[in-house]
Each structure stands twice: as C-alpha cells, then as structure tokens.
Design a protein that fits this description.
Elements: H1 9-26, H2 32-39, H3 50-71
C-alpha cells in the first residue's frame, strides 16, 4: 500500500537531513520505509537538539491547525 503525506518544507528538510545522517551511520542508502523502520526502533531513535525539537514541535502544531482547516473545507 502506498500513501502520501503532506509536510511543511522545514519538516521535509529535517527528515531528509536525519535520513542522510542515518545512511552515513549505517554506511548504506535507505528507502523512506527503511528509514522510518529504523527511526521507530527504540535503540536507534535519532536524537534532536533542543532547537530541532522545539522547531519540530512548533511545525507539528501549526500543521495540525492547517490539517483541521483542510479537513472541514
């Protein structure tokens, strides 16, 4: 099954950066499925800086507001 999710440009850039970091760490390219499988393994959760975590939290809250607006439009 394929799915598509819309994310803010900043979120996309953050995910791409973390995926690249993980590919370097694992020394191999990853598909997005493999990346998310690795992310959700408890022992390999990428650590965010305080600034990255706050930015991601803010973006998620903003995106939720936009999603609710789209949902009822």
């Amino acid at each position: 099954m394929k799915s598509t999710i819309s994310v803010n440009k900043d979120v996309k850039e953050l995910l791409e950066r973390k995926k690249k970091e993980m590919e370097i760490k694992l020394n191999r390219p990853l598909t997005w499925d493999e990346f998310f499988q690795e992310v959700f393994k408890e022992e390999s959760v990428p650590r965010l800086t305080e600034k990255e975590a706050e930015m991601l939290k803010k973006l998620v809250l903003e995106d939720r507001k936009n999603w609710k607006a789209r949902e009822f439009a």
